[in-house]
Amino acid sequence: MKRSIVAFASVAALSIGCGPGRPPNQLVDARIAYQQASGHPSARMAGPDLVEAKQSLDAAERAYRDGDTEKAKNLAYVAHRMALAAQARAETARAGETKRTALAEFQRFREMQAQATRAELERAKGALTIAQQEAQAQRQAREAAEAKASQIEGVQSQKSERGLVLTLLDSGLFPPSGKADILPSAKDRLAEVASALKDDTRSILVVAHTDAQGPQEKNAQLTEQQANSVRQFLIQQGIDEQRIRSEGAGSSQPIADNKTPQGRSLNRRVEIIVEETPGSGAMQAPPPAQPGQKAKTPAEPPKPQPPATQPQPQQPPPSPQPQQPMPSPQPQQPVPPGEQK
Amino acid sequence: MKTLMLVVAVAALAGCGAATPIPADRLARAQETVTLAESMPATTTDPKALQHLQLAKNQLDHARKLMIDGENEDAKWVLMRAEADAKAALYLANASAAKTDAQQTIESIRQAMSTMQQGGSGS
Which of A73, A133, A152, A226 has the maximum number of C-beta atoms within 10 A of its C-beta? Predict the structure, then answer.
């Protein structure tokens, strides 16, 4: 037994002494480095360097097997550096590939952006063309409406800052009894006005005025009713009700002397104002009420009126007159308060 | 020029019967690779590249001394190692520069895309 143990130990010692022992660190490092380099995702991009590393590594392995440890160390050292170089080459290639991919994606992105911009531009051009056509159509409709309205008999057409003002004198428009019902004889005139304004898109404001006779409150109420009657008639004739609103101005805006019958006749009138701002009349805020003017605001409570300094006797309402060619209204001048009553 | 003079001087000494010829070509190749690696700006910024470049230069100096002493066989191996280190330094520097360039490109693209998208959504 003792003899067999000694024999085994001798054989083992002999075999260790003859064969290569533990591989040198350089060889171990070179093996690992080559393995890492050859396993890199972009290893194929480092082909020649990998081949060189492999050749050095194989030579180192051979030298090691042959027992030439010094040669094996030197070759393994070189193989290790070649493997590092190969891996670096692979990483360089990979970085280049990443950069090219990013640039290609950016190029695609830019093309898509440019395409989207072009499409948006085309849409905008289309919208602009439509808007221009619509604006032209509106302008033509407006011009046609103004031309048509200016030819209506008994209607005074005048352009002002407020827009196109069509003035209809009360003569023959309302009954002389101070009511707001439109006389049948006046309906043709108003129908013509409605026909002229139907295709226009601008807002319309109907303002009724009266002379200075009678209480101010009653005048304001009457003109509100008269303006509303005209508004309703125009709506019946096809004017969009969203475009049109009405208000009574009472006697606050005379255009002629209230002391003469002719002046009072001129003051009793209805103005149909085709406003310059296109769009819905109903959506717009009503203009601020002028001093002495009563806008159509049902919620507004009646205000107490101061007593007139010079009370005028109630005059009989003017008798209905046959329709005559309307005289040109005088330019609106501010009337001193003393002349109104 | 310096290298050439050294090679000539060593050749004169070694011509008297040394067994291993002077590894002049290896010296030239190693020197050339070191010079190339030194010319890469990234060699100075990448620590690994810098380390291998320094190893290469040290070994190059060591090889020159060995050649002067007539130890051409040893010099040959040291020059092989020097060239391998210089090559590793060169490629590591290249990789470092390429990675930095790719990162900068990607960042520029990201910023440009962000700006373009903001401009698009703002219109």
Answer: A226
